[in-house]
Design goal:
Mean pLDDT: 86
Strand content: 15-25%
Number of strands: 5
Low-confidence stretches: 73-78, 230-234
Radius of gyration: 24 Å
Distance between the termini: 68 Å
Largest sheet: 5 strands, antiparallel
Strand order of the largest sheet: 2-1-5-4-3
Length: about 230
């Protein structure tokens, strides 16, 4: 269990965690790495999960084990995993010192999880993303744990933004290549230039109310199938 509230040891641990987070390939990989690192870094943490609330629906995006995987299917009786979840829209950190206080009767208490430290990763008008560390004993998370948690989530947020941008750029490149292939196919079929082929593709997309990328994929797939059949028939 980590014992570094301040100092060089903490800085070194966070630097190592940042390297691991930024070394992930996709946003999902970043989230998975984040919950695993949270258990190793946050003093008192035994489990961790990253959850999202959007349009009133809750789902867990990454988790260290099934006990802390909360979602909207009422697997936990429809009860929220955090006693003060709504506060996380307006405050970056919320701690539960003892889920059995006031008689329990909540999702955490039912799972034998007495403490929770929830740290906001992202929040906008429609979506809230939160990293939560859990422990079986009460009062597991103190001010030191909160301080480490806030530093850690800052690194997670940056790594998640970077991974999201990389994924978007990769998808944009794939989409560009796909549209280029579809445009070339239309040029050959319709005996038109590139501008005319692209314009034809855009108009068909609007007419059929289909995304340009999806329509391009259909054209490329259909052409590949036709070529395959032609080879087999010869």
């Amino acid at each position: 269990m980590p014992r570094f509230p301040v100092g060089f040891e903490l800085a070194e641990a966070l630097t190592s965690a940042a390297r691991q987070l930024h070394g992930t390939g996709t946003p999902d990989d970043t989230l998975t790495a984040a919950v695993q690192l949270a258990v190793r870094l946050l003093p008192g943490a035994e489990h961790a999960g990253i959850s999202e609330i959007q349009r009133g629906r809750l789902r867990t995006l990454a988790w260290t084990d099934e006990a802390v995987r909360f979602d909207a299917d009422s697997r936990h009786g429809g009860r929220e995993p955090h006693l003060d979840w709504d506060r996380l829209w307006t405050t970056p950190v919320v701690r539960t010192d003892d889920s059995d206080a006031d008689g329990g009767g909540n999702a955490l208490s039912g799972l034998g999880l007495r403490s929770a430290l929830s740290l906001r990763l992202r929040a906008d008008r429609r979506r809230l993303t939160v990293l939560t560390a859990y422990a079986r004993k009460p009062h597991a998370f103190d001010e030191d744990a909160t301080r480490v948690g806030r530093l850690f989530t800052a690194h997670v947020s940056l790594a998640l933004d970077s991974a999201t941008v990389r994924e978007q750029l990769t998808e944009a490149m794939r989409t560009r290549d796909l549209i280029g292939q579809a445009t070339g196919i239309l040029m050959e079929r319709l005996t038109i230039d590139a501008a005319g082929a692209f314009d034809s593709l855009v108009k068909a997309s609007q007419r059929e109310n289909v995304k340009l990328r999806d329509l391009a994929r259909r054209i490329v797939d259909a052409n590949s199938g036709a070529q395959g059949r032609g080879v087999g028939e010869r």
